[in-house]
């Protein structure tokens, strides 16, 4: 990975759509700068292989007592979270690295129970208002 104007570029994606620029929370950027200040542009961000990163991640979760989620599960959650928060699919597709929204809708759009409960509340409120307070059956 290499830094270019506050952006990290990863080489080698499956498709051209996989090449994308993602923003990171601003509070993380100084930490990344500090961790990479002595690295050349050719060095990887962590100096670790993907399997070493996964192993370190799993150890961290195990030692902290946090529920273990693999990276693929986190990707599913990220996509679902964007959709549940009304991020337009055009932007979610770009962030996920897909060419079209077909893959996003077919594979990653999970119903989050909290959002489903909100939808139920909206429907119930509408129907209660539409049919008034009279609960008797006719």
TrEMBL record:
The keyword Transcription does not apply. Residues 1-121 form the Tyr recombinase domain. It comes from bioreactor metagenome. Signal peptide: none annotated. One of its GO terms (molecular function) is DNA binding. Pfam families: Phage_integrase. The keyword Acyltransferase does not apply. InterPro entries: DNA_brk_join_enz, Integrase-like_cat_sf, Integrase_catalytic. Keywords: DNA recombination. This is Tyr recombinase domain-containing protein. GO terms for biological process: DNA integration; DNA recombination.
């Amino acid at each position: 990975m290499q830094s270019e104007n506050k952006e990290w570029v990863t080489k080698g994606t499956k498709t051209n759509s996989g090449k994308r620029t993602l923003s990171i929370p601003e509070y993380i950027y100084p930490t990344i700068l500090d961790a990479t200040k002595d690295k050349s542009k050719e060095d990887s961000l962590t100096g670790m292989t993907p399997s070493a990163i996964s192993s370190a991640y799993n150890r961290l979760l195990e030692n902290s007592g946090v529920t273990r989620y693999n990276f693929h599960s986190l990707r599913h959650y990220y996509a679902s979270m964007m959709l549940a928060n009304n991020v337009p699919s055009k932007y979610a597709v770009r962030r996920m690295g897909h060419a079209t929204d077909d893959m996003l809708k077919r594979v990653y759009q999970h119903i989050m129970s909290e959002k489903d409960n909100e939808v139920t509340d909206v429907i119930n409120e509408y129907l209660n208002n539409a049919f008034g307070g009279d609960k008797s059956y006719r």
